[in-house]
Amino acid sequence: MEKAHWQRGRSQPEKAQSLRAVDALEPLLNLPAGTLRSLLGPHRPRGGTPPHDPAAVRHVYGEDSDVEQALGDAFPHFNAGLRQVVVHESVSLDEHRSIDETSVTTVVRAVRDDVRHLTVVHFLDAPKAGTVDLTVRDGPAPRIRFLPELGCVAADIPLGRQLARTETAVVGYTLRSSAGVSHQHERRITTPLRTYLLHVRFHPLAVPSNCWGYHRTQIGAEPRHRHRVTLDTSHTTHLLPAQCTPGVYGIEWSWPD
Question: Does the global pTM surpass 0.85?
Answer without folding.
Answer: no
